[in-house]
Amino acid sequence: MMGLYHEDSRKLQDRFDTRRVADRIEERIVHDRIDDDDRAFIEARDMFFIATVDENGQPQCSYKGGEPGFVRVLDERTIAFPIYNGNGMYLTAGNVLATQKVGLLFIDFEGRKRIRLNGVASIDDGDPLLAEYPEAQLMVRVTATEVFPNCPRYIHEYRLVAHSRFVPRSECQTPVPAWKHSEWAQDVLPENDPALDPGREVIPRG
User: Which of 162, 125, 163 is nearest to 141 (CA)?
Assistant: First the structure.
């Protein structure tokens, strides 16, 4: 595993006299395997944030949500998650194809805990897991390079009210977001977009 810190990280650590504690954290807490506690935490989450970068170094950060367990831990080094129908920009998936570099942040707002997972991502159109996720367009697999918890002290405590109705489920038809029926969007939707089905329920948010 490559070192977690680069020259500019080190400059700031030296400026604020945190190099010793940073080294201890890397030594004791940062690992390149997903242990049983990590697995349980990740697979219990219903959302995460993902950072990616394109070939020019331009970053993107995205929120991904689903039913609890939509992120699967396949083994001690690998996780997988689906890409569902979205706004058609494919900023995250495009960056995965371009550079493969990803950083994921999993947060439990009720339990006030978080885990970071950095790694190398890939997308395979023939991924067998696609068949297990209703309406998934792509599957992303990430090989972990660094896995570590973060200090939880700045996590605000929130409570879940309801899961989004837009998350695809095998037992019901997924509604269409109202913005896809807006005048500016109707004539540019993909030919197979669910919003073109007149029988679909349309809701502003789920």
Answer: 125
